Amino acid sequence: MTRFIFITGGVVSSLGKGLSSAALGALLQARGYSVRLRKFDPYLNVDPGTMSPYQHGEVYVTDDGAETDLDLGHYERFTGVPARRSDSVTAGKIYSSVIARERRGDYLGGTVQVIPHVTDAIKEAIRADLDDTDFALIEIGGTVGDIEGLPFFEAIRQLGYELGPEQVMFVHLTLLPYIPAAGELKTKPTQHSVKELRSIGIQPDLLLCRSDRPIPEGECRKIALFCNVPQERVIPALDVDTIYAVPISYHAQGFDTQVLKHFSIDAQGEPDVSAWERIVTRARHPEGEVSIAVVGKYTGLQDAYKSLAEALVHGGIANNVRVDMQWIDADVFESEGATQALESVHGVLVPGGFGERGSEGKMAAVTFARTKDVPYFGICFGMQLAVIETARNVAGLRNASSTEFGPCDEPVVGLLTEWRDGDHVERRGSNDDLGGTMRLGGYDAVLAAGSKAREVYGAEKIFERHRHRYEVNINYQRKLREAGMRFAGFSPDGELPEIVERVDHPWFVGVQFHPELKSKPFDPHPLFASFIEAAVAQSRLV
Ligand code: GLN
Asked: Contact, 348 vs 342, CB < 8 A?
């Protein structure tokens, strides 16, 4: 029997519901239970794939090719359970399925309504594709009281009623703001948020209270009394110095113990949090520091590169160093000599990206790294630009470019019109819809003997996640090889270049996929571990 834990948020957004859910998932796992984590987002986009990173942050891609909310990245990093398409549901996805059913005539002449048709579809999605998981943790996006969230809250209210407290638990995350003038933490916003939740029929079973300082016992008692929640289920969620300390901190406050109590499960001993303790110790006591420049377009918003930042941290953990990330807007490198600012860094990383703006600046950063022997890591767009840079500056193809920026004489990177996915062929044209039409999700790649990638992975075959519409044009392979580029990885049919390296450089690797999506604190991605290792070596030189 799967038990459902619904995690809702109140008072303000950005309280870290995703992290809280992920940390609870990790704790239940550490007690030996299987978990699945899911995100239900009330907005009308079918998925975040077409949203600007400034609106939504990173788009997290699953093995099965779904473009999802970045919280799924937290879930995967904390639990190691690969997220699936069914774990990311939006109002847009629900409504389009309801409307498609209506068009098919499935509602047999009835009036189609939010209740029961939309709420039924939400309930179906909550319970679908769960196998025999012990706990499903379902996070509802947004904040209680949002108009667009109402059908979701109504659906979980109904499920709570239908399945009963032995199978359903409601966790509500709130904020206790500190008012300096009064010298107090305030409980009123929490009271109001719970009142709002109760007005739509949901009584929270446990409150998780975010606060930047310890919450006095009296305040916890007050919250318990006003919100109808036993005091031991008012759990302080205090700020911590590293996100990987959250599971330990929650456990110390009794979160997982209270969850088991709610479900009348006898807690057998303590969860094994030793892996988290090891990670936190390493994060808190590094033996050195390296500085990595991340040259991108959305550097003003860290959420746009969430998994990347975490993967760099993991690379640091693997090498016992702190990674100082310098987020640099690529535009700054478009003026002559500006890349001198990179003299002090120990590695340059150009992440995934779209569109022409900033691409020349990114290529200037590539030139710097290539010619100065500074470790270079190009991810997706960062790989494509590294190839164009070699084509232009080493192979002498002055007009080399990507057709992503418009028609060009030397399309070293071009539109991907056809590729193999298992036993069928996917085809695309330049006028296709933008949503969900890229080459998405996990694909195999075969690594060349003698390549850096093969050495780093210690394997011949890898499986990595993709999100791209353009590809390195294989017709330029010979010229690029002659210019010092090694094709270190290909799709199994040998058609799509997956990894390039420079043979004359200590660490210069470009990958067409997104390795950052699969890195975990307890299992750092080999490419990130190796890149940071190269940066450590570089730091000894400068
Ligand atoms: N814009 C490039 C493409 O579509 C790279 C995409 C990416 O970096 N994710 O192929």
From this structure: yes
Which residues of the chain fall below pLDDT 70?
Answer: none
Q: How far is the CA of 165 from the centre of ligand 1 (A)?
A: 46
CA 513 to ligand 1 centroid distance, Å: 9
Catalytic sites, residue numbers: 380, 514, 516
pLDDT of residue 326: 95
| Single-letter amino acid, residue 434 | L
Any idea which fold 286-539 has?
A: Rossmann fold (3.40.50)
**47 within 8 A of 66, measured Cβ to Cβ:** yes
**CATH architecture of the domain with residue range 3-279:** 3-Layer(aba) Sandwich (3.40)
Contact between 542 and 346 (Cβ < 8 Å): yes
Distance 352 CA to ligand 1 centre (A): 6
Q: Which ligand 1 atom minimizes the distance to the CA of 380?
A: 8
Q: What is the pLDDT of residue 267?
A: 83
Q: Is 58 in the pocket of ligand 1 (CB under 6 A)?
A: no
The letter for the amino acid at 319 is N
Q: Is the beta carbon of 93 within 6 A of some atom in ligand 1?
A: no
DSSP secondary structure string for all residues of 367-426: HHHHHTT--EEEETHHHHHHHHHHHHHTS--TTEEEGGGS--SEEEEEE--EEEETTEEE
Distance, in Å, from the CA atom of 237 to the CA atom of 246, rounded to the nearest integer, reads: 8
Indicate the residue type of 379: I
Is the CB of 496 inside a 6 Å radius of any atom of ligand 1? no
- Whether pTM > 0.70 for this model: the answer is yes
